[in-house]
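Build the 3D complex.
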Amino acid sequence: AQSVTQPDIHITVSEGASLELRCNYSYGATPYLFWYVQSPGQGLQLLLKYFSGDTLVQGIKGFEAEFKRSQSSFNLRKPSVHWSDAAEYFCAVASTDSWGKLQFGAGTQVVVTP
Amino acid sequence: GAGVSQSPSNKVTEKGKDVELRCDPISGHTALYWYRQRLGQGLEFLIYFQGNSAPDKSGLPSDRFSAERTGESVSTLTIQRTQQEDSAVYLCASSLESSANTGELFFGEGSRLTVL
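Done.
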């Protein structure tokens, strides 16, 4: 069965520290991979995506993610977090023939402390 | 506005009543999606409209759920005989058909449904 796992429900990080959010997937073939962010009072926003090519993907707001086929992972990273990065982060996958029909992980809530 | 607009933003209803949720996609976006987000969970795909093609209804959880879209504009999601487990935030998203290359869905802020 297809699934997306975000092992960390909640992460607390100090402002200026690095952040890594984990995402593992189980899929029949290499899917399209996405990270979305949901900030309070706002809709979901696409941070970055992987379709093919370079396995290190750069996104908005200083985020990057690395696709590792051997580990079925697509972890999100940011070298130095800002207070405005406090939000919920969702990893998602989709088949290559229906990219908008996303299967989401349960999300990771990120809290940023001063 | 320039974004995806959903209404109502909040809806409280009694068990057994019918509800309608509305989505106005971004002008020119041919694809429209409905998702459901239960408390503390990720989003679940419900239904997908693409132009004049038959909608992909594979995510609808029961026959109490239905959705319509008029051309490439407004969509309504209808839930009949609501149950408490229908309580969730219902999110609408739209995209350009061609944005398979950009891969971006544009989400509205959602309609929060509470069934008492």
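The interface with chain B takes residues 4, 32, 34, 41-46, 49, 51, 90, 92, 98-107 of chain A (CB under 8 Å).
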